[in-house]
Automatic annotation (TrEMBL):
The lineage of its organism: Bacteria, Pseudomonadati, Pseudomonadota, Alphaproteobacteria, Acetobacterales. This is Metallophosphoesterase family protein. It comes from the Bacteria. Belongs to the metallophosphoesterase superfamily. YfcE family. One of its GO terms (molecular function) is phosphatase activity. Residues 1-183 form the Calcineurin-like phosphoesterase domain. One of its GO terms (cellular component) is cytoplasm.
């Protein structure tokens, strides 16, 4: 069985369309989305509509939850754009998404960790950058349910990576499909940059004795996505990171 894994679209319907077209050529049996679907200076309503039309199972991310829990004036730029661009029914749909899913026997899909949508699973913040978390920390974050799985799929950090936990699951983060970098000022302050503007997703094959994973970095029309962010009046960092995979200070 081959499962396409997408996450952290952040309203980038241009990246989503390119990824779904690419997935269709790779013989995936199913696709799953790990959350943070609509929040961003892109196409929030169109992104939700596309996932719904395709019948793709989705986990609820922290931004999906925040859009539904708060009013526009209490939200940051990316959540405010999504809140204003979505219908009440679409916000309700995001809020009703499950915190976890099991797309196949032995496979657990989460946004952050099995118990939190705001905690990274395989990374921790060191000197304002994301670095691999110690194995003891990873085991604690997985908990009993995660440690019992064969594969755990996670997102949230936007940082592509895999970790095989000794005596536990293969943990896979495909990286962000629609937003290759960000800066967070609240504690713990940190930033993440993919280094390229490609849309990232993963193909998981669980048909063999051991699971196999292909990490994919897909070219798409990122200039179109950046122009859309500029049309929304997003701060300069948002279109810049979409075009380059780097924050302005790094470029």
């Amino acid at each position: 069985m081959r499962i396409a894994v997408i996450t952290d679209i952040h309203g980038n319907a241009a990246a989503l369309e390119a990824a779904l077209a690419d997935i269709a050529t790779r013989g995936a049996d199913s696709t799953i989305c790990l959350g943070d679907i609509a929040s961003g200076a892109g196409w929030p309503a169109e992104t939700v509509e596309r996932l719904q039309a395709a019948g793709i199972p989705c986990v609820r991310g922290n931004h999906d939850r925040w859009i539904s829990e708060h009013e526009g004036e209490k939200l940051g730029m990316q959540d405010r754009i999504a809140h204003e661009g979505l219908t009440a029914a679409q916000r309700d749909w995001l809020m009703a998404l499950p915190a976890t899913l099991e797309p196949a026997p032995g496979v657990l899909a989460v946004h952050g960790t099995p118990s939190s949508d705001v905690q990274n699973l395989i990374e921790e913040v060191v000197a304002e950058r994301l670095r691999p978390a110690p194995m003891a920390v990873l085991r604690e974050r997985l908990g009993d349910r995660g440690m019992a799985a064969r594969v755990v799929l996670c997102g949230h950090s936007h940082r592509a990576g895999m970790v095989q936990v000794p005596g536990g699951p293969l943990v896979v983060n495909p990286g962000s499909l629609g937003l290759p970098g960000f800066r967070i000022s609240r504690e713990p302050a940190h930033r993440q940059e993919a280094g390229t503007p490609h849309a990232r997703y993963a193909m998981l094959d669980i048909g063999g004795r051991e699971p196999a994973v292909e990490m994919i970095a897909l070219a798409y029309d990122w200039d179109r996505a950046a122009r859309r962010a500029e049309e929304h009046g997003a701060n300069a960092a948002w279109p810049h990171v979409i075009r380059t995979g780097l924050l302005p200070e790094s470029a």
